[in-house]
């Protein structure tokens, strides 16, 4: 079902069932996955003398702002950038310009944007970036401001499909990740997500592991 969420911070939401029970979000559940690429990346930063925590925080802020700019654009609203540095704003605007270039050859009719949904059946929640018609096909769009697409991102959008199954928009015809670079060298990529059934199954296994780990703490 489409549900209300409690915001603790811009980048974090708390999801709850109809009876008030708090449930995990998709990204929290996926933390059970091993991410070797992330470890290698952090090691490279360390060898270069870069504090990975500060680097991640900065990139996360740019990604958050870029997401907000795209969402506000689709809603016809103006984005408040007062909490961001000029460099962060410039890089987020680079991502927005890349999105504009893609939009020139694609017709988007949003049904909802940044919609929080909670599954009463599976007891987890997530926020869908954009769901609507893209070139007259019902499409789930997920925006990633990153230099690469990682396997867990595909599992994440499959989890969103599980959530959509409990709404009136239960069967998107297309599920696509738009990888939007923050700088020109990071590029832009349209990535259709396939094998959704298997990726949904993977997520359900992650959800089971998440709950088992909580029970053992």
Folded structure, characterized:
The structure is a single chain. The protein is an alpha+beta fold and 217 residues long. The protein has a single domain, classed as Lambda Exonuclease, Chain A. Helix content is 43%, strand content 25%. Strands 4-5-6-7-8 form a 5-stranded mixed sheet, sandwiched between helices. Helix 3 packs across helix 4 and helix 5 packs across helix 6.
List the helices and strands and how they pair.
Layout: E1 5-9, E2 12-16, E3 22-23, H1 26-29, H2 36-47, H3 52-75, H4 86-103, E4 108-119, E5 124-134, E6 137-144, H5 151-164, E7 174-180, E8 188-192, H6 196-216
Parallel strand pairs: 6-7
Antiparallel strand pairs: 1-2, 2-3, 4-5, 5-6, 7-8
Helix pairs in contact: 3-4, 5-6
Compact summary:
This protein has 217 residues and is α+β, with helices and mostly antiparallel strands. It is built from six helices and eight strands; from the N terminus they run βββααααβββαββα. The strands form two sheets. It has a five-stranded mixed β-sheet with strand order 4-5-6-7-8, with helices on both faces.
Report the sheet-strand fraction.
25-35%
What are the secondary-structure elements, in order, as H or E?
EEEHHHHEEEHEEH
- Could you give the distance between the termini? 30 Å
Category from helices, strands and their pairing: alpha+beta
Q: Give me the number of helical elements.
A: 6
Low-confidence stretches: 1-10, 37-42
Question: Describe the biggest sheet?
Answer: 5 strands, mixed
CATH architecture: Alpha-Beta Complex
Computed over alpha carbons, the radius of gyration is: 17 Å
> How many domains, in number, for the residues?
1
* Global morphology: globular
CATH topology: Lambda Exonuclease, Chain A
Approximate helicity band = 40-55%
Strand order of the largest sheet: 4-5-6-7-8
CATH class: Alpha Beta
The pLDDT mean sits at 86
Q: Strand tally, please?
A: 8
């Amino acid at each position: 079902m489409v549900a209300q969420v409690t915001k603790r911070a811009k980048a974090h939401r708390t999801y709850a069932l109809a009876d008030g029970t708090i449930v995990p979000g998709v990204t929290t559940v996926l933390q059970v996955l091993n991410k070797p690429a992330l470890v290698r990346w952090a090691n490279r930063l360390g060898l270069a003398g870069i504090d990975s925590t500060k680097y991640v925080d900065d990139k996360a802020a740019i990604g958050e702002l870029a997401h907000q700019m795209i969402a506000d654009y689709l809603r016809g609203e103006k984005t408040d950038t007062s909490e961001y540095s000029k460099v962060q704003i410039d890089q987020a605007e680079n991502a927005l310009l890349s999105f504009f270039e893609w939009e020139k050859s694609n017709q988007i009719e949003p049904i909802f944007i940044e919609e929080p949904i909670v599954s009463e059946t599976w007891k987890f929640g997530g926020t869908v970036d954009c769901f609507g018609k893209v070139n007259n096909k019902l499409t789930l769009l997920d925006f990633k401001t990153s230099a690469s697409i990682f396997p867990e991102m595909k599992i994440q959008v499959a989890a969103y499909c599980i959530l959509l199954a409990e709404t009136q928009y239960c069967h998107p015809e297309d599920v696509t990740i738009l990888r939007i670079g923050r700088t020109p060298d990071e590029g832009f990529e349209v990535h259709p997500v396939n094998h959704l059934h298997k990726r949904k199954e993977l997520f359900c296994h992650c959800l089971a592991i998440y709950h088992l780990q909580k029970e053992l703490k």
